[in-house]
Amino acid sequence: MGETVVDLLPEVTWVGVLIKAVLILAIISALAGFGTFIERKVLAFMQRRLGPMHVGPYGLLQIAADGIKLFTKEDIIPQNANKFIFKIAPVITAATAFIALSAVPVFPDFTIPEFIPVLGGVFVPSIASDLNIGILFVLGMMAAGLYGPLLAGMSQANKWGIIGAARTAVQFLSYEVVTGLSILAPIMLVGSLSFVDFNNYQHDEGVWMMFYQPVAFVLFLIAGFAETNRTPFDLLEHEAEVVSGYATEYSGMRWGMFFIGEYANMITISVIASIVFMGGYNPETMLFGFSIGWLLIMLKIAFFFFLMLWVRASWPHIRPDQLMWLCWKVLMPLALINILITALVVMV
Amino acid sequence: MSEVKTVENMVSITIDGTEYKAKEGEYILNAARANDIFVPAICYLTRCSPTLACRICLVEADGKQVYSCNTKVKEGMEVTIDTPNILEERRAIMEVYDVNHPLQCGVCDKSGECELQNYTLELGVDSQSYMIPDTKREVANWSSVLHYDPGLCIVCERCTTVCKDMIGDAAITTTKRGGADLDKAYKETMPKDAYSMWNKLQKSVIAPSNGTDETNCSDCGECVAVCPVGALVSRDFVYQSNAWDLKRVPAVAAHSSDGAQIYYEVKPTSIEDRTEKIFRITNEWSYVSLDGSARFAYDFQNTTATKDKAAFDAAIEAFKKAETVRFNAMITNEEAAMLQTLKEKMGLKLYNLEVRAFQKFLNHYEAASGNALWSTDTDAIMKKSDFVISIGAALRNDSPAMKYAFNNVQKMNKGAGLYFHPVGDTLIPTFGKNVEIFNHKVGLEEAALYLVLDLFADKEKLPSEVKDYIESFKTTETKTIKEKVEKTVKEMVLNEETGEEEEVSKKVKEMVEKEITVSTNGLIDLLGGDASKFDDVFAKMMKKKENFSMMLGEDLYYHDKAENIAKLVALVEATCPINVVMTPPKSNALGVALICELDDAPSGYTVGYNENGDFKLSALGTGDLDMPAMNQQEGTLCNIGKRLLPTNAAVEYNGYELNDLMKVLVGAPELTIDWTATLPKERGFKGIEFDALTNSFDNDGTDNRGYVLETSNVETELPEVEKCDENAVLEGDIAYRCNPARQFNDFTDKSHEIFEAFALYASVEKAESLGDKVEVVFENGSITLDVVADAKMTGDIVKVPDYRAAEGVYDLFGESRYKTVTLRKA
Amino acid sequence: MSLEQFKNRNVGVQNYTTLDVGVSPTTNKAKFVQFITRAVKGELFVGLWVTGKAMFKALFQGDMHTVKYPFEKMPISPRYRAIHDMLRLLESGSYRCIGCGLCEKICISNCISMDTRYDENQRKEVSEYTINFGRCIFCGYCAEVCPELAIVHGPRYENASEQRAGFSLFEDMLTPIDKLNLQQEYDGFGAISPNADENIKQTPLAY
Ligand code: SF4
Ligand code: SF4
Ligand code: SF4
Ligand code: SF4
Ligand code: FES
Asked: What residue's CA is closest to ligand 3, atom 5?
């Protein structure tokens, strides 16, 4: 494993990590909220509507309004639910989503200016913890997120919930395979599990991974949609079929946590896709003498996020059996073949 | 009693190929109607004479075109209702009616119940072929209740006809309109009848017949009822409501004893006030005619009543403490039965000044004649009778039904009439040529009956004393008269007593005198007639007369010698071919008389029901406990036609009823109308449940309302009658207890469309001499009244109304209807 | 009718056209081929293209369809049956309503009520008129029956109220006298037909 950029930077203190964690938590939560806003806007535009318009300029404060609403709404727990599990299930979703983010580089490193009291001079890293098994950790964490919907659905004593939970189990477990297999090929190429190495690899090669590994890219994207429960794979809580699936009985902030988790996952997937397949951030990309690497990765992340919304606006969702057929009979064989070919190429 | 039983001869006629039975002498139109066949007709009114104004009733009878409303049926007559020619005539007539008729059906008060509209549609008038310049005609108010819009009038003359032939006032007539002349060319091109009808229509309009702007009539509103279009409307109703919004509540007119059929027409008062209000009264005008009280005295309901428990308890206490219940004729049979029950169970006295005298009279009559009730009714008189005698009734005021019958007989049956009454009335002589008036002195009603006996009785049947007594009036004297009859000078002379013009012949002295013997009937002189001429007049009156009837009024019941009069009436019935009808004084007097055992005098603590008393139950809202007024309760009433009639509640009542008191006092069934079947069978009631009572007329006018009371007919000996007490005659200023027409009681007084004042009514001259206000001093008190001149009254007798119970006029008059009084200017 | 018959009953004329939806593949191979062809043909991207184009148009070419109600309102059809207006005569400003009561009578939900009176000019005058909009079903019968074109369904459709009974009085519905020039003639429900003149028969007139 070569020298990483991190190594060149000031020492990472626990204060810095803590600040970073808080930052991630705060900003990603806010971004999740903002994500909902963006989603509503984009969907609206695609349907030639205006979307939220009335709270704040262009409806920007709609997020705040929704937040207030979610926080102040009555928290209803069904009588026959397993109360404890019912209560913690959303926390699992949200927590795993955020934990996954801890190993993903979000925002550039920076040092808190000296003039700020107490925290002045603290270095805040871009990754809360740059694990050398970053990707594995992230994927693992996201996979663990399966427990949120699963437990939620099973604990709430509601048939839609149960169906939702069952679908969760089936869908998440199946697509975990595809995600893992699809990303294996790039990993084989890079030979590291650290995001920083992926970034650097592409920088060094000068070509984005998606051109080396188009099949892996497509598979990863498809699996990512499934993992994040997005259209056309939003079977877990598809209103027309299962009311709200695993979230049927949830209300208020607990329901909100599922939501935040989902959006956090969407961001995570977007980030992974950007870094692993689309060149990541390259601090040395310069424009007019400024480093625009971070700006570029933002754009890339934003593109993936937008893609998810776009797809939602355009495509119908599919049946569970089609989903399974796709997973086990199409995507997984493709991924395996891809790995084999990659392995051959790497060996040769 | 010798009822002339005319068996109706039926003939068969064929209408449009089907054979029907019809009464002989009936008009084709009526025969068709009786058989439920429709013949278009606008101007004809059943019970009135045909005017031939509309000519739409054309039919073909035995090949000739005739007007069905004035052509009588003949055995075997073949009638065709529609022929092409007739249809053409009818259509032309309807087109003519529609010429210049304002297009304001949208606001017209007829609101679709319009015969002009109906016939226009019936005859399919969808285009107009005629025209003429319109004439501006001004809307006019003819009286306090009549509103006439000549623009809408189609001059069918129904209003004038009913006023003349039924009501008797003849207060309106056709007059010149001053319209443009018809285009002569129409004469050639138009159907004949349509042209002549138009010619008449174009020239006429309706106006008060006295030449002024005011009808000065009895304000009965019958013209309003018969008007086929919206031309005549009651002033109060103009543009108030559409007919279709009004809910019709079938009922009985509450005030006079006519018991006329009416509908209360109700709907919510206004947008803000959703309680139901009576907007007007309508009637089946083909079969009944209303008087002013029936048509306009309708809003007398007790609106303020609530269930006041304290007052209710006080009423219970009052009844427990009471010895007497005082009430009047304004009460249903059911309530009367309740009071009778109280009498039986609690020993209360029943005191009813309005009915007591009548009840006694009826009892005397029954004792003398064996009949519980009189033998005919006003409807039968109108249908059959051609000679009517009225004794003791102020026809215009007391009994509208009798007035209408008296008048109708003159007009429709080519009748004749004798009218005996102390108060002169200028209207009665106008009813017909053959009406003879006797304005006799007060107290001589017996003499009138003796005269009737003299004129009509089968002398064989009369007891010899009576015969002798009557003969004793006849004198034969030798008179000197002029020889040459053709030189008789006739002059109109004002009769001092009646203030009427009478024709008197004078002897011319220069003539050669000759002695002849003439027999004079003293009775006639006694009654204020002219004996010398009466024979001729009477002979003329009797020409072709077959069916005689006599109407008796309230004066007789209050006569000092009422018992003797009752016997005389019985004697008349027994010995003369005369049917008798008596008018119960006011409202349900007959029901009360039949149901209650009334007492002569009150005593102790008195509960007054719509009357004075120590504790007052009142439907006027002025008493200690509220009671429902007649338009707020269900129940039955008995009328002059000897019928028991059901009436219904038109407006809401929120208080207690007499039955509620009964429940606490002696126990009572759930509802007031549960008493209906319990009315005493021995007095002629039939024990039919209220809800089983019918309330309708047949197409031929047969009255199916309620049921006719059963009367007992027991064969009795001829009664022993006393001689006429000529000394009973009152002299001096005389007050007559008599209400203005349309006023009968506190309830008519309360109604906003009744304007007749509580005042002293006198003939014009008398009123002048009395001044504006006068104190009428009786033996036992006095009353101060404004003086109102009544142009239709003659003579010196003044009328004092009794319709306000609180004024205690009944108490002032005591047992009689006439009193000698002192009139002091006040 | 048995259930079987009921289900098989022939409802109306069977004049439907069937779209050509092709044949669904049955074998796995055929399915796979279909999948691949569709994927390669880019059908999915056509979907994206459609929505993308819509968004582009909406944002940059003013093809946004949202109407910012209540700040912005769509023009409504004259046949729309909203809250009633009572019109005036344009010449005199008098009420058109003559108080004939036909609307009151025909009203299917019995929600019109009116008071009339005999006015000083010997005319029938509507002294008060209300409609209970809590009961009105906006059927338009009143407008249709009105002989004077006095009551019409106006364009005011915002009739939410706090209570079930919501009354409008005459003055609420009547064109304000100062807005008479703005009064719109109404060509929707109950308006006279364009060929009304042809349906009138000529009548000889004498003036
Ligand atoms: S009388 Fe009245 S309802 Fe009849 S046609 Fe004339 S305006 Fe119309
Ligand atoms: S007022 Fe009426 S009833 Fe009298 S003539 Fe005219 S239309 Fe006939
Ligand atoms: S629209 Fe229909 S329901 Fe409403 S007021 Fe008019 S007639 Fe009545
Ligand atoms: S139908 Fe027309 S003219 Fe008649 S009352 Fe109703 S609004 Fe007035
Ligand atoms: S009804 Fe016979 S002429 Fe009018």
From this structure: C136
Ligand 3 mean position to C167 CA, how many Å?
13
CATH architecture of B360-470+527-582: 3-Layer(aba) Sandwich (3.40)
Q: Tell me how far apart the alpha carbons of residues B384 and C66 are, in angstroms, rounded to a whole number.
A: 86
Domain boundaries, chain A: 78-104+131-347
Residues of C in contact with B270 (CB under 8 A): 115, 128
C92 and C178 together in one domain: yes
Q: Name the residue ranges covered by the structural domains of chain B.
A: 309-352+596-708, 360-470+527-582, 734-825
Do C113 and C178 reside in the same domain of the chain?
A: yes
Interface of C with A (CB under 8 A): 32, 35, 44, 47-48, 50-52, 54-55, 57-59, 63-66, 68
- C166 shares a domain with C90: yes
pTM: 0.78
Q: Å from C101 to nearest chain B CA? A: 7
Give the count of beta carbons closer than 10 Å to the beta carbon of residue C134.
14
Q: Whose C-alpha lies nearest to ligand 3, atom 2?
A: C139
Tokens representing C47 are 């979907």
Count of Cβ atoms closer than 10 Å to residue B725 Cβ: 15
For ligand 1, atom 1, name the residue with the nearest CA: B229
Contact B511, B484 (CB under 8 A): yes
Domain identity same for C103 and C167: yes
Q: Is the dihedral of CA B571, B574, B576, B579 positive or negative?
A: positive
Does C59 contact A310 at a Cβ distance shorter than 8 Å? no
- Please check whether residue B640 is in contact with residue B399, taking contact to mean a CB–CB distance below 8 angstroms: yes
Which of C113, C118, C128, C172 to mutate: most B Cβ within 10 Å? C118
Complex ipTM tops 0.95: no
Q: Report residue A126: phi and psi, to 5°.
A: -75, -30
Give A-chain residues touching C63 at CB under 8 angstroms.
48
**CA-atom Rg of chain B in angstroms:** 28
Give burial (CB, 10 Å; 0-12/13-18/19+) of B149: buried
Is C126 domain-assigned? yes
Are the C-beta atoms of B498 and B438 separated by less than 8 Å? Answer: no
Nearest to B530 by CA among B622, B440, B613: B440
Peptide bond connecting B400 to the previous residue in cis, omega within 30 degrees of 0? no
Q: Which residue of C has its CA nearest to B243?
A: C101
Is residue C204 assigned to a domain?
no
CATH 2.40.40.20 fits B734-825, yes or no: yes
Read off the pLDDT band of B424 (50, 70, 90).
very high
Question: What's the structural domain count of chain C?
Answer: 2
pLDDT in tens, B260-303: 999 999 999 999 999 999 999 999 999 999 999 999 999 999 99
3-state secondary structure of A245: helix
> If you measure CA to CA, which chain C residue comes closest to B246?
C105
Q: Do A71 and A251 contact (CB within 8 A), yes or no?
A: no
Q: Choose the mutation target among A40, A43, A50, A304 for the interface with C, i.e. most C CBs under 10 Å.
A: A50
pLDDT for A163-183, tens place per residue? Answer: 888 888 888 888 888 888 888
Distances (CA, A) of C102 to B184, B277, B610, C112, C151: 41, 21, 43, 10, 11
Distance CA B295, CA B289 (A): 10
Cβ within 8 Å of residue C175, ≥6 positions away: C85, C86, C87, C88, C182, C183
Given an 8 Å threshold on Cβ–Cβ distance, is C203 in contact with B127? yes
Q: Tell me the ligand closest to B152's alpha carbon.
A: 1
Ligand 4 atom having least distance to the Cα of C86 = 7
Residue of A nearest to C57 (CA): A48
Q: How far is A147 from chain C (nearest CA, A)?
A: 32
Task: Please give the residue range of the domain that contains residue C91.
Answer: 84-182
**What residues in C contact B126, CB-CB < 8 Å?**
201
CA C57 to chain A, closest CA, distance in angstroms equals 8
